[in-house]
Batch of 4 targets.
Target 1
Amino acid sequence: MNQQKIDKVFEQITKNKRIHEAVLFVENADGDFSCSKGYGGKDVDTPFLMASITKLFTTTCILILKEQGKLSLEDEVTKYFKDDTLSKLHIYKGKEYSMRLTLSNLLFQTSGLPDVFEEGSNNAKKRAIHKDMQFNFDEMITLTKQLKPHFAPNMKKRAHYADVNFDMLGKIIETVTNSTLEEVYQQFIFDPLELKSTYLLKNDCDFVPTFYYKNNVLYRPEFIKSSRASGGGISTARDLMIFIKAFFTGRLFDEKVFHELEFINRLQVSMFPIHYGAGLMSIPLNGFATLFMGKGELVGHSGSTGSFAFYLPSKDLFFVGDVNQISNPALPIRLVMRLAVSLKS
């Protein structure tokens, strides 16, 4: 019955004219139930851009370092960055909060910082659609300073999704470990889980998947290489399934941490119905977005290029895959919500 429902939802989503290729992989924790679907030549071993699912990998490293006692989420960012980097980064209603930001603000997206990727008339997403481009961390900080923050840190339990929060966490990881982010991912995640097809771009010879903007195929190696901690990862559905299971079942860090960091906040209206917690998205299934037909919640992350990796605790099911379309970031969310609601009984 579950197989038939999954087949039906996948067939419906791939009828969308914007979907040129897709892959879906569904399993329970024990692997007793496993289902994979491919479209347009993709399968569970086809590399694709993880985009913002990479944030789960960055979150993993932060939580491992926290567990090792090498950092605290209450640390202020002044511990890790020079004053000239932070100065004027966050000025809200004439008051500067730059030096008061904490790791928790970054991880929970409660800093109030703007998102250079989506915001502004010349945002990074628009520029990347038209041409490949490279930028470094300092340039990202400079661009962020040119935009206005949305609220003071921790203001009224608000959250605003911004890549710069995780770009900063990536730099903090490198500072604490005295290693590159690629090396830390390898040590903390890739090697323990034996992930053979998951990586951050390092060399010109590394394979770079293409992605679609409407009907156009885009190849953007420099942009992807620049995204790193916030969205530069590449993986396959098979590898990503191994990772998302490990993330939620305690193979990488003590899963009790989720009880310590369980508060979530609703993101900006443009990202409805997504809420955000400790480095991961939460999507309630019992509200208006599902016409009150679902129950429980999905937890995990999606990516702007159409990737997704979510866990449905109420059914003990994991959903990973990709619809490879950057023009509508809501597509993977809709797919996973439809799957979750169809499998409610």
Target 2
Amino acid sequence: MTERTGVFAGDDPFEIARNWLAAAEQSEVNDPNAIALSTVDAEGLPNARMVLLKDIEDAGFVFYTNYGSAKGREIAAAGRAAFVWHAKSLRRQIRVRGLTEIEDGEQADAYFASRSLKSRLGAWASAQSSPLESRAALMAKVAKVTAEKGVNPPRPPFWGGIRIRPLEIEFWADGAYRLHDRFVWRRDATDGVWSVERLSP
């Protein structure tokens, strides 16, 4: 493997990513786990939006969403997604591209239960990405759901996790005179062996 030192050191890209996120949690003002998630629609037109990365596992990156949302539908159709995580305070970023899978089991149930009650009720009330008549109409739906679901609503069947199993992870750190350091990890399959190479800035 390409020799790497400092913040790039290590033989596990997921551990490196966890270390970078932990460092950002000490320096970023808001949402250190925010990522810009990219998908493509049926015509191949890209979409991007900010979501919160909730877990860096030993083999993937997990976020949660309404499966009926634009991103949920596009991921279901394409089976792949990409994201970039940027820590402005650290002058670092991580780019990920990979294959997707649904996480709608106990792990999703546990995360949903950990959210605030209002967030759980909001997940039931919002038909994410669909047209909405007014804010008042949304709040009326929230009131209706609150009356129906009570204080311990279960996870909606249309809401859960999406796991990105990467085929490519790039770590980037700012360098003097724009001579940045970039290392890309690549593999041919989600259970394959990683190769690492340095990229020109």
Target 3
Amino acid sequence: MVDRALPKRCEACARPSSRCLCSTIPRLHSSTRMLIIQHPSERHHALNTARFLAAGLVNAELHVVEHIAPGSALYSQLADPARRTEVLFPGPGASSLARAADPREHQLVLLDGTWRKARKLLHLNPILAVLPQVALAAGLASRYRLRKAPAPGALSTIEAGVAALEVLEPDKSFQALLRPFDRLIEEQIASIGTELYRRNYLKPGSADSGSDR
């Protein structure tokens, strides 16, 4: 049996060292505190955009957990009345995400996982379920060109985080956070080949298809 060593991975971005994306990750400041709660099944997903978001935003934390134990540091942080905490999730009673005249620090929770796993996180954790839910404006389109969106307006975690921050802090730009995401998409397109990508993923007349605009 041949012993094949696994490729070394960058500890920061979790990518293979030969394809490290750390050079594309900025360090941006925001007034909004972002808590990213990642379902454990997403930890080793190839498109782990939650890690990129947490690495690029100074005022952000990534927690990989399914059950948030009462008394834990994360539980206390979510329940802290000194912060105005909301969950970015388009539930039936969600209000539109907007700036608010509230002197408390705004803490925005992002749930990283499939829609089913995100709903499971809410169901398993009453501390999340009781928090106000907010949603982004309808009609936003994902930049991830290699996947059909599971629902209209479905965005990756990093795209949702950037869109939310630019609503809450319109005087700043957070587009630089998307650089590692864009690079990852470019790498995936290169790996399948440009012609195959155009044939299987592009709609006629789209900007990347080579057709007239």
Target 4
Amino acid sequence: MNDSTIYTLDFDGVICDSAIETAITGWKAGTTIWNDMPETAPQAIVEQFREVRPIIETGYEAILIIRLMYLGKSTAAIYANYAAKVQRMLDEIHLSIDDLKKLFGETRDNWIANNRANWIAMNPLYPGVAEKLRRLGQRHVWCVITTKQERFVKEILGANNIELAGERIFGMDRKLSKPEVLKGLKAQYPGRQIYFIEDRLPALEGVQKHPELADVKLFFALWGYNLAADHSAAAGQAIVLQQLDTFLSDSLGAV
């Protein structure tokens, strides 16, 4: 194995196109809070969710966004003063963020228990990514750094015949920020180049705020959940704008 470069990848929006599953899980969870919502999510709302997906940092937010969509809010309206809308909804339903995280995870667990094949089908990997990760694993150390709960990452990777040791999946369970995970990896692999591949520009900019991570090479996954405005904002920064075909072609490194 060539350990010269450590590859760290976000999961949703880089490895897995989970937008539909996240929308449906958000809807299922929402029906337990608001009894006026029907059992099945309308297809139009599921499709609209993809437009709003770039604003989400952690999955539980899907519960609130789905509710806003059900109430008829447009994509533009949801983006406007988003943080304030989230806080107002939390106040109205008298639930904490931890409560919603628990509900979101349990809703996924129930879906998996009742119909694992359907849940997996709603979490497809981006075309070519499974093969890329298998090649990566033959020659490099690679890790997942995500806000997703780790058991769900393990389920999806396993279903796609991708081997990754549990200690290399850094999810919500660790209660560490992405910069904190990267600092830990730098300490674990001193002197090694670290690549961080992420589809959310705020996450990449968050890494840039830590001088000790200045030598981490940042890649912006344009195939994920981001907007044209994000692409423009990233241009000129010390961030590599990366298309999926370039990532798959192994141009990030000698893989």
